[in-house]
Design a protein that fits this description.
YczE/YyaS-like, about 200 residues, 8 helices, mainly alpha, membrane, transmembrane helix, Membrane protein YczE, globular
Length: about 200
């Protein structure tokens, strides 16, 4: 039950953070910018693209780890995609931020929520989001730290987001290099709570 709570609460917080960064218009995280770009280019909701891109990543991660695809990760991406659509389409559909100071405040809150959400849901030791699966695969294969592995994954997504004209800006760069260290900062606190 404790693990389940870490999992659901973590993903709920994480997806709220993603929505904040998208709505701030300062620049979404690379993976989120990719999903928004794909949504704008081909249609379907952002949450739907979270699921489609997630399935592709599950296959890539399986190849990198020379293992069977993590089919349980499908549950994680479906939940994540549903939560993102819940925040974007139901809760904040008509929310327009006019003030620049407010936009930056919302963006900063979003970044903190993303890192917090990742640090919390990882404690469940359940199927990780394929993006974080990629981070762990890079970490396992290269011996790079979690922080550096996360950054490498973000840079790969950034290149893909550029191809589909995703909402890239100053915020994207901040998230690309800032999320890894922030997750590493929050992680030990929740690890102790889960001990």
């Amino acid at each position: 039950m404790k693990r389940f709570l870490f999992y659901v609460i973590g993903l709920f917080i994480l997806t709220a953070g993603v929505t904040f960064t998208i709505k701030s218009d300062i620049g979404a995280g690379a993976w989120d910018a990719l999903n928004v770009g794909l949504s704008d280019t081909f249609g379907l909701t952002v949450g739907s693209w979270v699921i489609i891109v997630g399935i592709i990543l599950i296959i890539i991660n399986a190849f990198l780890m020379k293992a069977w695809p993590d089919f349980l990760a499908l549950i994680t991406i479906v939940v994540t995609g549903a939560f993102i659509d819940f925040w974007l389409i139901t809760v904040f559909k008509n929310w327009q931020i006019q003030d620049v100071f407010m936009a930056y405040a919302v963006f900063v809150a979003g970044v903190i929520l993303i890192a917090l959400g990742i640090a919390i849901y990882l404690q469940a030791k359940f199927a990780v989001i394929p993006i974080d699966g990629l981070m762990l695969a890079i970490h396992s294969k290269t011996g790079l730290s979690i922080r550096t592995s996360k950054t490498v994954g973000e840079l790969l997504a950034l290149l893909a987001a550029l191809l589909f004209s995703g909402p890239i800006g100053v915020g994207t760069i901040i998230i690309t290099f800032g999320i890894g260290p922030l997750v590493q900062f929050f992680y030990p606190t929740f690890e102790k709570m889960n001990a």
